[in-house]
UniProtKB/TrEMBL annotation:
One Gene Ontology cellular component annotation held by this UniProt entry: cytosol
Signal peptide positions (record): none
Keywords: Isomerase, Pyridoxal phosphate
Cofactor: pyridoxal 5'-phosphate
Protein name listed in UniProt: Predicted amino acid racemase
Family matches, as InterPro entries: Ala_racemase, Ala_racemase_N, PLP-binding_barrel
Organism, as annotated: Caminicella sporogenes DSM 14501
Length: 356
């Protein structure tokens, strides 16, 4: 009997999605950095991405970049480096995204100690209010001038991040500003910026509509490859799979019970006061997985007649009354995943990973 709970990973679907996204973007002169953080850089998955056209592997955590160090391609650190971690950054990342000159100076010092040159992409904030130098040309030129004086680092490009914090949608206008600043920097300092990185999976809609500014030549894609969705509007990308990753959980109790608890209602295990709809007696299954592993809001039962009722730390409670399948204790129930759910399940050491 297979171990539960488990994350089922179908490499053939990752391969297909990677090829689809690479073909779409390459047609517009855009290379891909494959973002591995949502599946915690499982090497077998990352390898499939590289074998099918991804040029760079990118992750927010050095711990994940270590996992893929033997895969033959450049590695990119997505989250701004911590000064306390500059040795590991220079050792395990060929490229890092940066916005603070003090950090870049420390990276330069460490790279010189290790006899390396570390590549820098300078991040610009185009209004989403997460990381980046505010996209005013004077601000940008000032920090570029300082970077160019450092010997241990090389400025290879500029980039931006949109949607992740402020929800700002990538557009011809804001990414056009990134392109414009890149051109001004190249001209003023007489340098070649090899990478102009126009964001993440939320930028795919511009590629699909042929509205991406022409000098944008890199996107950092995770969800669009892994789950087949663009993230500006949440639309499914044509000719991709959404179920390359699935959760399988085992039924450990199956009983008919009232749909409303009996007694005074206080706080649940997470400090919330729950509310309930009285539907009478219902058949309820308890599964051996809980909020320590995944937020139940990020799970989508493959059996559409199943309703997720809620979860405690270790138990997921579902209503199987209307299902056509007659579930029994020991049966497995399968779920498709939202991005946040996959991220949590991949991170949980209590969820087995089954690669096929």
């Amino acid at each position: 009997m297979s171990k539960c709970p488990r994350l089922e990973i179908e490499l053939s679907k990752i391969r297909h999605n990677t090829k689809t996204l690479v073909k779409l973007c390459n047609k517009h002169g855009i290379d891909l950095a494959g973002v591995t953080k949502v599946f915690c850089a499982i090497p077998e998955v990352a390898q499939v991405m590289v074998e099918n056209g991804v040029k760079i592997l990118a992750d927010s955590r050095i711990e994940n970049l270590k996992k893929v160090k033997n895969i033959n391609c450049p590695k990119m650190l997505l989250r701004l480096p911590m000064i306390s971690q500059v040795h590991e950054v220079v050792k395990y990342a060929d490229i890092s995204l940066n916005s603070e000159i003090k950090t870049i100076e420390k990276l330069s010092e460490e790279a010189l100690k290790l006899g390396k040159v570390h590549n820098i992409i300078l991040m610009l904030d185009l209004g989403d209010l997460r990381e980046g130098v505010w996209a005013d040309i004077n601000n940008v030129e000032e920090i570029v001038e300082k970077i160019l004086k450092l010997k241990g680092v090389k400025l290879i490009g500029i980039g931006t991040n949109l949607t992740c914090y402020g929800g700002v949608i990538p557009s011809k206008e804001n990414l056009g500003k990134l392109q414009e600043i890149a051109e001004k920097i190249s001209k003023k300092f007489d340098i070649e910026l090899k990478i102009i990185s126009g964001g993440n999976s939320s930028s795919i809609h511009l590629v699909q509509k042929n509205e991406m500014p022409m000098r944008i030549n890199n996107l950092r894609l995770g969800e669009s490859i892994v789950l087949g969705r663009e993230t500006a509007y949440g639309n499914i990308i044509e000719n991709t799979y959404q179920d390359a990753f699935k959760l399988v959980a085992e039924v450990i109790e199956l009983k008919e019970k009232p749909s409303v608890p009996i007694g005074e209602i206080g706080m649940d295990a997470f400090g919330n006061k729950p509310t309930f709809e009285d539907k009478g007696i219902r058949k309820r299954a308890i599964l051996a997985i809980g909020r320590q592993d995944v937020n139940p809001d990020n799970l989508i039962p493959v059996d559409e007649k199943i309703e997720i009722l809620g979860a405690s730390s270790d138990h997921l409670i579902v209503d199987v009354t209307d299902s056509e399948k007659k579930y029994k204790v020991g049966d497995e129930i399968i779920f498709n995943l939202e991005y946040g759910g996959l991220l949590q399940l991949a991170t949980s050491e209590y969820v087995y990973k089954n690669i096929k």
